[in-house]
Amino acid sequence: MATERTLSIIKPDATRRNLTGRINACFEEAGLRIVAQKRLLLTEANAREFYAVHKDRPFYRDLVAFMISGPVVVQVLEGEDAVARNREVMGATDPRKAAPGTLRAQFAENIEANSVHGSDSPENAASEIAFFFAGYEIVG
Ligand code: ADP
Ligand code: MG
Fold first, then answer.
1. Which of 14, 37, 123, 130 has its CA 20 to 30 A from that of 72?
2. Ligand 2 center to residue 131 CA distance, Å?
3. Are strands 33-40 and 72-80 parallel, antiparallel or unpaired?
4. How many angstroms does the Cα of residue 9 sit away from the middle of ligand 2?
5. pLDDT 10s digits, 15-40
6. Which residue CA neighbors atom 5 of ligand 1 most closely?
7. What is the pTM of this model?
8. Whole-angstrom Cα distance, residue 12 to residue 65?
9. Strand, coil or helix: what is 6?
């Protein structure tokens, strides 16, 4: 398996509860290295564009409002099979269905305020990383 990179976002429900460090510790314990990271407030335009794939879903407007409701921490995680490994660490979208010990089982408030985002394929990881980071900001 090759070394990969994936985009992670610690969402506003988690930054509000001061969970950034605990979530980062879980990534590192799973063998994922945080090779880029910054805390920012998404603009509405940013959030709409980032989640454009969901623009026809009933939850889109609420999701955009949630993602701009407080700071997020955007980060690039690097490691063996990083996209799939991060999805395992995150757990299912709905915390009621997330396996015990996963980030969403431990920390999510509900299916929307579910604490973390992670890219779902290597192709989407590349475009999501480029959405937030210039090459010089990623130090492996
Ligand atoms: P994931 O984040 O697990 O890849 P999706 O890409 O399907 O999940 O959805 C993107 C985000 O939209 C979710 O993480 C969650 O914040 C929100 N979301 C997904 N499904 C719902 C839903 N049924 N109701 C409210 N919000 C949802
Ligand atoms: Mg997704």
1. 123
2. 15
3. antiparallel
4. 11
5. 999 999 999 999 999 999 999 999 99
6. 93
7. 0.98
8. 11
9. strand
pLDDT digits (tens, 9 = 90+) for 51-101: 999 999 999 999 999 999 999 999 999 999 999 999 999 999 999 999 999
**What's the rounded Cα separation, in Å, for the pair 43 and 117?**
17
Distance 51 CA to ligand 2 centre (A): 9
Which residues line ligand 1 at a C-beta cut-off of 6 Å? 54, 59, 63, 93, 111-112, 114, 117, 120
Distance from C-alpha of 1 to C-alpha of 78, rounded to nearest angstrom: 13
Kindly list the protein residues that place their beta carbon closer than 5 angstroms to ligand 2, a single-atom ion. 120
Strands in 116-118's sheet, in edge-to-edge order, are: 33-40, 72-80, 3-10, 116-118
